[in-house]
Every structure is written in structure tokens, then in C-alpha cells.
From TrEMBL, chains A, B:
Any single Pfam family the record assigns to this protein: M20_dimer
Keyword presence, Nucleotide-binding: no
Enzyme's top EC category: hydrolase
UniProt lineage: Bacteria, Pseudomonadati, Bacteroidota, Chitinophagia, Chitinophagales
Molecular-function GO term, any one: dipeptidase activity
Protein name in UniProt: Dipeptidase
Transmembrane segments: none
InterPro entries associated with the record: Cyt/Met_Dipeptidase, Peptidase_M20, Peptidase_M20_dimer
Key words of the record: Dipeptidase, Hydrolase, Metal-binding, Protease
Residue span, Peptidase M20 dimerisation domain: 200-352
Listed EC numbers: 3.4.13.-
Organism in which the protein naturally occurs: Pinibacter aurantiacus
């Protein structure tokens, strides 16, 4: 019988070329003009899952973008692993900062450059190829189900309904997700938590039309100035968020956990150098890893108003806008924080302007225990292929659907990510190292093997 | 001999149609793609000036957009009036707020809607048609020179050189400008001053690339947040500008002037209603008219950074930008204020970010006395056609070249504007009332007559 290693070695180029094909589809969920691309991407995945050995693959329509479901049931009495991932990607702009087309993947210095290379097409596709490896070598030890959605980057607005309506279909013993990072190939790690999210958009209206800034300037509130003042007030001089009630439900990390976090390898100098900043910023009293892991945040994701073109226009604009998102930690509730945030903005809005604020999307924070069967199987798989035990870390990102999965399906979620923080997720020049891609494909079959053995 | 009134009555439609043709040329000086339109607009003016009776018209190339010069010298011993105006217009965006195309003029409710209808094509063209009236009826009492530039809306960067190099050509006894407003046709007024300008652009850079706001948020300074904090700090709780030295050179208006200003008809309720705001905003201790007339201001003309498209993108952007302009009053110097402003921004920039700030354009404030020959001739002309003496007021806008004109050519500038503050200058749906257009054409010949008689 062919070994996993043999099979993967022989199919190395095929594994890569298929991923590149997938990356060529601009499946941007946030933009309505990509509706057809979303369908095309779902169909490509269906084809690949069937080729890899799935018994059955269906594309389910939703109120938004379709969900791809596939399965191979080898024996109903054996444990079932549900692999969750997403085929949608973040918008690619600002396009002018990409060194090559976001949907024209190129390999450079051992890295695949393309939107979605890591987040999450590359990581999803590792599972398809790991499944193929087990399937083609007749070594699949678990039943396997795939749930690959098309709306993760816009907050999974329709997945909850799908999950609630398809509990039997999705019945499983563990949910496995590769949509996070590890510290490095030398220092493997596994996320034990993801942060929640509350993402809103704010519109501030001053005068009912754009005005000449000479004729009216100084006498009518400028919505940009007012919005800036409102934003400026959201963090105090210690970069602590000032919104009353914001921290009420935060479960402080234990001294033991903070001590463990401090032991993970981290060089502030390298971090600053990589980002090109002279000084780091953040909430007083917490380290960088704590700020991105165990603390909630409030970030401005976008701002616009007035004249933003070439040259000068002396306008006092009617409107200014901002996109603001908070990352949440246990036990902050997304709905509650959204309400607190929107109400606070309305409360601090001065009478000179009118304000509208509304939710884009949200998601709950999620923590997974490190003593579950799934966590242990994943840690052992990583130890097998990396030669080292993974360090448990708290991830800064969000996978909005996690809390709902556990609630509706009653199983734990395991985050076995193979990306790197430096993969430029959501940024120009997103990349995924070939070494990480292949390492994932190599490691995942061991997860199934060890999970079945427990 | 035909009277002015007869000639104008007979040519009413022609006067309008020719203006509409001029308004169809998208002569946006700030946008490089309109370079050809600028030339076309200059040539159209040349043709019209010659038709109106000019002896000579030249289009002078500059380092930027061309200058149109025309003249009719009836007798070198007679006084010469130099009419200054501009054929360039502000950018038309945001386009979606226009009810009809900005360069497809329409007449509705007795008003011409188009970019440049009032500022300044409509007002310049009144002078061309007033000149035609005098020329065709053989009643021109002064020599007349036209200087119509194409860069007023971008700060007249090349006009100073042209003026300095062509002092003999531009020799005159008074400069007449229609690029301001009057209170109303019932309450005529004349501007006795225009504010200066200092217009800069600021770029704040945080990390060297756009980052995932989950992975890095909370640990790296967000340039939008920092820029907002910097902007917020520029006005104190009394909406007084906080930049050290900003007010140092301001000549406070006298109690007498403030008393006179307070007597001009003004309804705060109507002003608020027209603008759709519940409360006015501005520097404590000053009235609305004082805030826009005798006080310097600092306004945000534009802001942008991060994701500004449809939906949500969880990005911590690398850069954020703002366009900021100050209106200046006597004796503030544009260069000095620009320097103070840029240095202040650099000083308050925290070490987490890098800042670039640079001048877009500037211009000096200008005041004209009310006892000059030109002012008296204009006031008498207005009294003749309006039946009322004009009220002297301080305008809020800027005509950057005024101070230079006086310095280089040694003559006073007279502002005889026929627009209205509600003409949506620099805004969507700019308009010019037909009644004001024709009133200007009716009034201007009297200026020439009275100026010649003095």
C-alpha cells in the first residue's frame, strides 16, 4: 500500500496547481458584483471534493452565498470529523498596493501570493488534499464531513439558519477548522480561542448639502471634525476604551495563563521592524500578545468624507462616515456590545449633527478546552510532523460561527491553523508559504488517525 | 441710439444661450484629465470677447492652465477698468447628489443649474455681455481689459508670475471682480474683504501595510484613530483654534464694524432651516456673520483611510489622509499660517506614526476701502439699478490673487458680486438665478459710466 508520504510527494504539483486555480476565482463575498464568482467557486469545490473521494457533495442555496457540503461516511459507528472553512475572501483593495494581481496567483520565494492564499482557500484546500490522500490510499479512519461556506468574511449572516435547519446532516464528534495561524514552523502553536466581533458603520450628517467652506466655514458644524472628535473620545490616554459598560463582562485571564503567554517566543524588536513602526501602541498594563489575544479592542476600519480626490476642493461636506469594529473576548456578547457602542455614539453625538449607526455583522468569542479528545489528537498530530508539541495561544481574529456551532451541534471546535501572522491576511499581497501548505496536508491525516484511535 | 435696456431686452435669450454653452465645457482645473477642456473654454471666451467688441484677445500659456486676456482701448487718456474672473470650476463630485448633469445646464424655477453657473462663469459672462451692451451701443466710457484665468479654484499658482511679467499690459485704474455674493436682490451688498487661505494635505502612516484588525488590532497604532485624535485637538471646547500663534496677527474688527455687521438682515432660523441643521456651531463670542466674515477658521475638507467600500472589511489600515484648510483674515499671512499649521501637526504627531503634511495652495486676505473711487462708482451703480445703497459686508470666501494685484499693479479691487450664498458654490446643484444674471448685466455698465465720470 502506498504511504501518505508517497502519495503526497507524487501529487505535489497537482496539489499546488489545483489551489492556484481556486485562487483565480475572485470570490469576494462583500461585493454584489461577484455573485457569479461565488457560485463558480462553490462548484469548483464540489468538483474537487468528488474527485478527492467524497460520496456526496451538495451546493445549498442560502439567502446569501451558497454553502458547499460534502461527506464520506465509511462506517456510521466510527467518529465523524466535520471540517469547516470558507471559500469567500476579503475585498482586494487597495489594488495599487499589490505587486501582482490579487486573483492572478504567483509563486515567489516559496510563497503563493493571492487574495485567499491563506485565508481561507489555501487552508481549506489542505483538508481536501489530506482527505484525498487518505481516501486514495484507503486509510481514512473517520467519517468526514465538509462544510465550506461563502460568507465568513461578512460575518456568516446565513450560516446560523443553515446549521439550525441541518443538525442531522452536520452531526459530528468534533469540528476542525484551519483558519488561524501558528507562531512558526519551528514553533508550532494552536489557537485555543478566537475573539468575537461587533462591526458597525456610522454616518454623521451636518448640513443638508456640501457647502463652500469659505462662505459657511466656521458657522456650521463640519461632520468630519465632529466625527473625529467622537472617535478621539473612544480611547483614553491609556488607550483604554472609554465606552461605559464595554469591559463589564470581560473575564480577565488568569495569572497562570498570562504567565504561559509570556513564555511564547516573541521579539518586540522584530515585530516592530516587520511592521515598520518606531513604537508600539496599546492598552496600558498589557503586553502585545495580551493586547491581541485576551483583551477586547476597538478599531477604525475605514473613514471617509468630503473631497478625497486629486488637488484641493474647498468644501464643508454634508456627511462623514466611519467603519468601526470591536474584537470581543469571553464573556462579552456581540449583540450587547453592538448596542452599547451604538447607544454610546448616539449619546455623545452633539446637537449640531445627526447620526446614524448600524450593525454590519457580529460574532461571539469562543474558547476551546485543551483537554478535549479533539485538542489532544491535533496536538499529537502536530507533534508527529513538527517534532514539537504545539503551544496553546489565544488568536486575535474572529470566526463568528464558532459559538453557534458548539451551541447547536454540541461539539467542541479545534483550531489547527497553518498560516502565519505575517501572511497579510485582509491586506495587499496576501501570501501562503508553500512549506506551510504542504505541512498542513502532511499533518491533517494524523489528526483523523489519532482522533479515531481515542 | 439704442439704449442699454433695449439692447439687453432684445438679446436676452442670446445672453443666456451663450452662457449655457460655456457651462457645458467641464473646465475643472484640479483634474489633469480636463486639460483639453480648459483650453477649449479659454478659446470659447476668446471668441465671445471678440464678438462682444474687443480689439484684441490673446490666450497666454502658463505653466498650468492658460490665461485669457482681452481689451478695448477707446482712449488712452480715459480711465481703464480691469475685469478679473476665472473660467475654471470646482470638481463636480459627489456626482450622485446632482439632480441633473453638472455640465448639462438646465433652467428650473428661474435658475440655471450647472457647475460654474455662478462661480464664476455666470459672473464673468455678465461682464462680457455688459461690455457687449456698451460696445454695440457705442457707449463705452472707459478702456476695458479682461483677465480671465483658469486656476482660481486651485489657488492661482501661475497667475502671480503672469501679473509680474505683464504689468504694462494689465495697467489699469481699478480692478473689478464679480466672484462674490450679495445678501439678496432686495438687500444689495458689496464685499469689502475676502479671507485668505492656507490649504494643506496630511498623510498619517501607521504600519507599513494594511493589517488584519483581529491579528494586530490593539497592538499597533491605527492611523485613522491617531489622525482623528489630532484633528479633534485642533478646536477647543469653545471651537477656538488651539494652534499656538494662529491668532497672533489677527486684526480684531472694531466695535463699530461689528455693530454695522449686526445691522445687516439675518435670520438665524431661516439660515438653520436652509441648511437643515438643528443648531449652529462656531467660535464662542462671535455671531454667525462674524464667524464667516471677520474670524479665521480651520475646516476639514476631506478625510479618507482604510476600507470605504460596500460591506465590511476588518482592516487596520496603513495610512489615513486629510485635507485641511484655514480661512485667514487681516493681517494673517498665508505662508506663516501654513508653516504654523504644518509644524503644529508634526509636533502633536505621536511617535507611533509618521506624518507628512504639505501645502496645496494659499492666498492672502484682502480688504478694500469704502471711500475709493471704484467703491463709490460701484455703490452708485447698484443704487441706480436696485434702488438701494449696498451694505458693505465681509465675505467668507477667498480670491487668492487680490493681495498680489494690489501690490503689483498698485490699484484697488472692487468686489461687485451678484451671486447668493445659497447658490451651492463648490457643492452639488450649483445654480445662478436668471434674475441675478440679468441684474448684473444691467448694473455693470453703470459702473463704467460712473467710474469714467469721476
Amino acid at each position: 500500500m502506498q504511504t501518505w508520504k508517497d502519495y503526497q510527494e507524487k501529487n505535489k504539483d497537482k496539489f499546488l496547481n489545483e489551489l492556484l486555480e481556486l485562487l483565480r476565482i475572485p470570490s469576494v463575498s462583500a461585493r454584489s458584483e461577484h455573485k457569479k464568482d461565488m457560485q463558480a467557486c462553490a462548484e469548483a469545490l464540489k468538483t474537487r471534493l468528488l474527485e478527492a473521494g467524497a460520496d456526496k457533495v451538495e451546493i445549498y442555496a442560502t439567502a446569501g452565498h451558497p454553502v458547499v457540503y460534502g461527506e464520506k461516511i465509511i462506517d456510521p459507528s466510527k467518529p465523524t470529523v466535520l471540517v469547516y472553512g470558507h471559500y469567500d475572501v476579503q475585498p482586494a483593495d487597495p489594488l495599487n498596493l499589490w505587486h501582482s494581481g490579487p486573483f492572478e496567483p504567483v509563486i515567489k520565494d516559496g510563497k503563493i501570493f493571492a487574495r485567499g492564499a491563506c485565508d481561507d482557500k489555501g487552508q481549506v484546500y489542505m483538508h481536501v488534499k489530506a482527505f484525498e490522500t487518505m481516501s486514495k490510499t484507503n486509510t481514512l479512519a473517520t467519517n468526514i464531513k465538509f462544510l465550506i461556506e461563502g460568507e465568513e468574511e461578512v460575518g456568516s449572516p446565513n450560516l446560523a439558519t443553515f446549521v439550525k435547519e441541518n443538525k442531522a446532516l452536520l452531526k459530528s464528534d468534533v469540528i476542525l477548522i484551519s483558519d488561524t495561524a501558528l507562531i512558526s514552523l519551528d514553533t508550532p502553536s494552536m489557537d485555543v480561542g478566537v475573539r468575537g466581533l461587533s462591526y458597525i458603520e456610522v454616518e454623521v450628517t451636518g448640513p443638508n448639502r456640501d457647502l463652500h467652506s469659505g462662505v459657511y466655514g466656521g458657522a456650521v458644524a463640519n461632520p468630519i471634525t465632529i466625527l473625529a472628535k467622537m472617535i478621539a473620545s473612544l480611547h483614553d490616554e491609556n488607550n483604554h476604551i472609554t465606552i461605559p459598560g464595554f469591559y463589564d463582562d470581560v473575564v480577565e485571564a488568569t495569572t497562570a495563563e498570562r504567565k504561559l503567554m509570556a513564555e511564547a517566543p516573541f521579539s518586540e524588536e522584530e515585530y516592530k521592524k516587520d511592521l515598520g513602526v518606531n513604537e508600539l501602541w496599546g492598552e496600558k498594563g498589557y503586553t502585545t500578545n495580551e493586547r491581541t489575544g485576551i483583551r477586547p479592542t476597538l478599531e477604525l476600519n475605514g473613514i471617509w468624507g468630503g473631497y478625497t480626490g486629486e488637488g484641493a476642493k474647498t468644501v464643508l461636506p454634508s456627511k462623514a462616515y466611519a467603519k468601526i469594529s470591536c474584537r470581543l473576548v469571553p464573556n462579552q456578547g456581540s449583540d450587547k456590545i453592538t448596542e452599547i457602542l451604538i447607544n454610546h455614539l448616539k449619546k455623545i453625538a452633539p446637537p449640531y449633527i445627526q447620526i446614524k449607526a448600524e450593525l454590519h455583522h457580529g460574532g461571539e468569542p469562543y474558547m476551546t478546552p485543551i483537554d478535549s479528545k479533539g485538542y489532544k489528537a491535533a496536538a499529537k498530530a502536530i507533534e508527529t510532523t513538527f517534532g514539537k508539541q504545539p503551544i496553546p495561544v489565544r488568536g486575535g481574529g474572529s470566526i463568528p460561527i464558532c459559538a453557534l456551532f458548539e451551541k447547536e451541534l454540541g461539539v467542541k471546535i479545534i483550531f489547527m491553523g497553518f498560516g502565519l501572522d505575517s501572511d497579510n491576511l485582509h491586506s495587499p499581497n496576501e501570501k501562503y508559504d508553500l512549506a506551510n501548505y504542504y505541512k498542513g496536508i502532511e499533518t491533517i491525516p494524523y489528526f483523523h488517525k489519532y482522533f479515531a484511535e481515542q
